[in-house]
Each structure stands twice: as C-alpha cells, then as structure tokens.
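FW: tagging you since you asked about this chain on Friday. Here's the raw sequence from the shared folder, copied in full. Didn't touch anything.
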Amino acid sequence: MKLSSKSAHVVLKTTAGLSILAISMAAFAADTITIGVPIGLSGANSVVAPSVVQSAQLAVDEINAAGGILGKKVALEVADDGSGAAGAQKAFDSLIFQKKVNALISMETSAARNAGLPIVSRGKVPYIYTSLYEGRSCNRYLFAASWVPDQQVGPIVDHFVKQYKAKTFFLIGSDYAFGRGMLAFTKSYIEKKGGKVVGDEYLPMDGSDWTPILSKLQSVKPDAVITSTAGGAPNVTLTKQMRAAGIKIPYANLSVDEGTAKSMGPDADGIFIAGSYMSNLDTPANKKYIASMQKKFGADLKTPNDMSVPQYEAIYLYKAAVEKAGAVDADKVIKELPLVSFNGPRGKVQMNKQHHTPLTMYLGQVQKDGSVKILDSFANVDPGEQCPNLN
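HL: got it, structure written out here
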C-alpha cells in the first residue's frame, strides 16, 4: 500500500522516536544494576512482605546516596509471587527474562523458592534467599542469608525441657516444604534429647480451620506445643484459635516474626520464638538501622523483623560481591559471594558455609505489647551440613 507524504512523515517521526527511546533505555540499563524482588505481596506472606520491601528500599537508597555499585545506580524491580509456586514461576520468569535483572534478592515461601529455582538455573542469575527456611536447598546460584532449623530449634526445645520439664510435644504445621521440613528436624531433635512427639499434624497452606487439630492436641495433653506454619496469615489464625480453645501450655512458633506478632495483638502474648534478629538488639549497627528506617518511613514503618533485616543485609552483601568481582557477571559474582561479609543489624553475616551463614541466635518471648523480651543468646551458631556437594 502506498503512503501519502503526510502518512510517511508520521511514520518517520514515530520510528525516530522509538529509536531514541530504545537508545535511552539501553543507556539506562547500562548505567543501572537492577535487583529483582519476587515476594508474596498477596497470599500467606502478605503480612510480612511490606516490611521486607521497605528494608530493600532503604538499602538501595543508602547505596545510591553513597555512589551506587561500581559507579552505577541500583534499582529495584518488585514482583508479586502470590506466596506460592504458580505465582513464583511467573514472577521469576518476568524478572529474569523480561526485566533482565542482575540478581534476585528476596524473602519467599519455600513453595515459591522451589518453583523459581529451575528458572534461576536457566537464567544463570545470582539468587540470595533472605527467608528463614527448612534448610538443604542447594543450587549453584542460591545463597541463604537467614537461619535454618539446625540453628533455631535447639534453643527452643532445650528451654522447654530445662525450664518446664517438658517430655511430650505436639507439633503443628502448614502442609508444604517449610512446615514439614522444620517439624521433621524438630521431631528428630526432640527424640535425640529423650523427649517424645505425641502428635504431628498439618493443614494446607490456605487452610484456616485448625479446630480438628487442636482437638487432637487437647486429647493427648502434651507438655508443650511447637508450630511451623506459612508465615503470616496461618500464624494469626492458628494462634487465635489456640487462645480461644484455652490452650495454655508452653507454645513456640518457628515461623512468627515480630511484625506478625504485633498484628496478633494480645493473642501473641507468651509465644516463644528464636531467631537471628530482634528489633530491640542493643548494638550501634541496629540502632542506626532502626533510626534510618524510622526517618525514611515514619508512621508507615512496618516492624523490622527476622525476615526483613536479612533482606537489607543481603543487598549489601551483593554489593560487596559485585565490587570484589569488578563486574555484575553472574559467574564472577557467585564466586565472590561466599568470601564477602557485612556488619549489619544482626552483626557479621557471611554466607561462607556451603552457601549458608553462621549466626548469633536469640531466644525470645513475645510480651503483651507485641515486643519481644530476649531471654538468651547463642553466638555464632553453625548451620550444619547444608550443601556439601556444591562446586
């Protein structure tokens, strides 16, 4: 079809405009390091995800204010993974192959992580996983910046045995990799310590009626209960129903964070938790972090917690690895990630033990106002054998 001179002029103008846009986008990409954050803005993790995104935003703002990474600005690309496998596949695929991110750094459910890992391998992108999890997820590109059961379970079980003379335990979890993995380790540890598990029950991740499970708990009369649910909404529903049922035995939750505890209100009072971060840690680094978060977000600040702080630190670890490598090239960066460290709110963090990190762990108990009282600390707890066959 023949175009009139007027039509041709419009096409030429449009084509030229697109060319200029393409050039400017390419220039932006060359001058920017983009970090992808696939995270559960909807679904089970939606309770805690906003605090994780805020930590990421603070880290990026601080890094950019100090000159960026290798002189390049850092940008975030946040994608909702729906807290599950199907959403994660879409989010990972979009971030890696469409947004062309240089790295993935995020807190996610184990279901989301497991679904995303094949895409990470295909895209060959460094992936720092910042969530507490059930352990032993191994991939050349995967690095874990938070704790595993080998670091968390001991302080809780030992405290129940010593302080409450607990001999029988009832375990409750969400029916997926994290819930079952955490409680499998917990059961093994309890039995190793001479205790007995008298109940081991699970509910689907999207389940909310815990009544039949709580009835079983009450029928066997255990000395203590330990739960491991999909962080966020299931923690809230389970705890509320436990309190309504009048269950008053010592109760530890392996997946609750301070932010979720505060959202529970009075129901959270008395819950025992163990983790690598508590917001009231009395250290200069933590005080600086809290002050910076308060200044940036003000009244909108979500409670910093053991899922959001590793996100902040992981972005700095990625920065250190890129600077040590002298490039964003994935193969170079993953070689440097185990060699770099960062002194953040939790102290020194270095993912040098089979892509996992030794951590100082804290045993705490939630108070009536939602704060956590630190009962004990355990320095430099080893993550144990996680991924011995990584090369």
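FW: Residues 1-16, 20-25 have pLDDT under 50 and may be disordered.
HL: agreed, and Residues 5-30 form the longest helix (26 residues).
FW: great, closing this out.
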